[in-house]
Structures are given as structure tokens and as C-alpha cells.
Amino acid sequence: QVQLVQSGAEVKKPGASVKVSCKASGYTFTSYDINWVRQATGQGLEWMGWMNPNSGNTGYAQKFQGRVTMTRNTSISTAYMELSSLRSEDTAVYYCARTNDYWGQGTLVTVSS
Amino acid sequence: DIQMTQSPSTLSASVGDRVTITCRASQSISSWLAWYQQKPGKAPKLLIYKASSLESGVPSRFSGSGSGTEFTLTISSLQPDDFATYYCQQYNSYRWTFGQGTKVEIK
Asked: What pLDDT is attached to residue A99?
């Protein structure tokens, strides 16, 4: 069965970077795009960007341009999302999603001094 | 970017009620619209894709309609498990956008 398993919760200081992983199983990793979406506590869903695991091509929301990098390691069917220059407003649950049908369980990133 | 306007933001209903949620796109997205259900502490769950296609395993009381800029999600007979927050999402371009969400509460 298709599964996306994300890395565990992170606590970071303002100005630091965080890298969240998303390990895919149950399907051919390079056949479906991976998107990243975040959700602050009590708020709605916010799309961050997209990656084609086959080509490595990416597209980012303008809000995150220059701060976000999406990569992958096809040998281990894992996608990564790195967000830099963290601020308190980046505290949220970060999700990876295969196209829009299967989602990871979410990774809580807390930014606090 | 395409803006998605969802209404209402909150809806109070009883078990057995027919419920309709509306989503409007700022420009035509053809039928590239999905509906999700989200419960607290859980990832969104895909209910409807391509505006009206029911995702496998989703109860038939859920249905979607619309095309272009106007879309609706209908729950024909609200069940206790359906109290949750619902989001529309456009995927006409690779840049997804979501509606603000509709919280369905117990009346």
C-alpha cells in the first residue's frame, strides 16, 4: 500500500534551518510529483512547492522563494524539504503529499528561542 | 495566483441534514478541483477529485459538482463521522491553492 512516512518533530531557533524528509513506499517514487503543504495551528492549508522526483524539477510558492529547497534521493525513495532563516511564524505542521491523493502524517516544526 | 474562496467558514448542522459547501475560483480551473476532509491532528483526506470523481473508499453520501469557477461539495445525509473541516483545492496549475476551510459543527 502507498505510504509516505515523514521524519519526526523538530525544535529550531530563529534563523536556523530545518530539513524534513518524506519516505515513499508502495509505488514507483519517480512516477508521481511530491508537494509540500504546511498548516499553522488552527489555520488553513498553505502550499509551499512541488518537485518532480524523476527530473528533480521544482516550483515554489512565491512566499517561500529563496528560503525553501526541495530535493530527493531516488535510491531511497525519499523527498526532502529544507526551509531556512526560520522565524516564529514558520511554526507549523509540514506535510508531504503525492500529487494530491496520499499524504504523509505531518511533521511539527516549532521555531522558538 | 488563483484564489479560492470557500463558504461558509462555519456550518452548524444535525445528523441526517443535507449539507452544501461552496468554492469559487478567481479564474477558470476547468474541473481541476479537489475536496478534502480534515480532522484534528490528522492529515487531510481526499474525498473528491476532478470536481466530481469520488475517491475510492469514500462513502457515496459525498458528492461534488461544478466546473470553471463554481464548485460545490454536498453531503447528502450528515453522519457523526462527518463533523470535521473541509477544504477545496485547485490544481489547475502546479501551484496549488486551497480554500480557507469550512468547519462543520454539531448543531
From this structure: 85
- Cα angle B23, B27, B28 (rounded to 5 degrees) comes to 85
- Residue A26 C-alpha cell reads as 508502495
Of B36, B96, B100, the CB nearest to A47: B96
Residue A74, helix vs strand vs coil: helix
User: What's A26's DSSP letter?
Assistant: S
Nearest to B64 by CA among B55, B56, B6, B103: B55
Contact A95 B43 (CB under 8 A): yes
- Which one, of A9, A8, A22, lies nearest residue A98 by Cα? A22
**Adjacency order of strands within the sheet including A3-6:** A3-6, A18-25, A78-83, A68-73
Residues in chain A: 113
Give residue B106's pLDDT.
87
pLDDT digits (tens, 9 = 90+) for A35-61: 999 999 999 999 999 999 999 999 999
Rg (alpha carbons) of chain B, rounded to whole number: 13
CA-to-CA distance for B23 and B6, rounded, in angstroms? 4
Is A100 in Cβ contact with B49 (below 8 Å)? yes
